[in-house]
Design goal:
Elements (H helix, E strand, L loop, with lengths): L2 E4 L5 H12 L7 E5 L7 E2 L2 E5 L2
Parallel strand pairs: 1-2, 2-4
Antiparallel strand pairs: 3-4
Length: about 55
């Protein structure tokens, strides 16, 4: 199982919303935010943000 969240551009508000919704899922499967932004950090509370060109 995999939990992806797809966003074109992730601003601070969008990022917090995506992290909050993914953290609401209580299991140990990987969770990812896929975006066209290059984040300064790619791990937020165990949720990875991945750049897609």
């Amino acid at each position: 199982m995999l939990y992806p969240s797809l966003c074109i551009h992730v601003g601070r508000v969008d990022q917090e919303r995506e992290i909050r919704s993914l953290n609401a899922v209580n299991d140990n499967y990987p969770k990812y935010i896929l975006s066209m932004d290059r984040p300064p950090y790619n791990d937020f509370e165990g949720i990875r943000q991945i750049y897609i060109p």
